[in-house]
Amino acid sequence: MQFLSDLCHTQAAQAAGEVSRICAELVFGYNRHPAWDEEGRKSCFLASELEDYEETMPGITAMALDVIAADGSHPLKAGPCADCLGSSEFLRLQSKLTTCLSGARLAKDRAAETVSKVMIPEALDYPA
């Protein structure tokens, strides 16, 4: 009975993970990734701003991903990090789903161990 329960747990976790992946692709996949244009730069910190913020919020410079230096240079990548505006409810549900996967790998390991102990009796007509 434990073996069948472990198989169900493993299959349900795999299906939930796939559903989560597909939904994330639908929610975020149709959003244009920001570029280093004027609109994309609006979400970035300026280096001078971070220096001012550092006085009241020590460590913020370590958390800022997209910083535009005084000379206008920026990180070498396609564009600033995309934001998740309007998707907080989806992210909350996705996070809840992810935590529901607890124990899935343990169940998979138990099922694999059980299967490894199955003995197939020798029969003359059994293929070699």
Tell me what the structure shows:
This protein is mainly α. It folds into two domains: 1-31 and 84-118; 35-81, no CATH class. It has six helices and two strands, in the order H-H-E-H-H-E-H-H. The mean pLDDT is 86.
Structural class: mainly alpha
Shape: elongated
Quaternary organisation of the protein chains: single chain
**How far apart are the termini?**
31 Å
Strand content: under 5%
Number of helices: 6
Q: Compute the average pLDDT.
A: 86
- How many beta strands in the DSSP annotation? 2
Helix content: 40-55%
Largest sheet geometry: 2 strands, parallel
Largest sheet strand order: 1-2
Radius of gyration: 25 Å
- What is the helix/strand order? HHEHHEHH
Low-confidence stretches: none
Tell me the count of domains.
Answer: 2
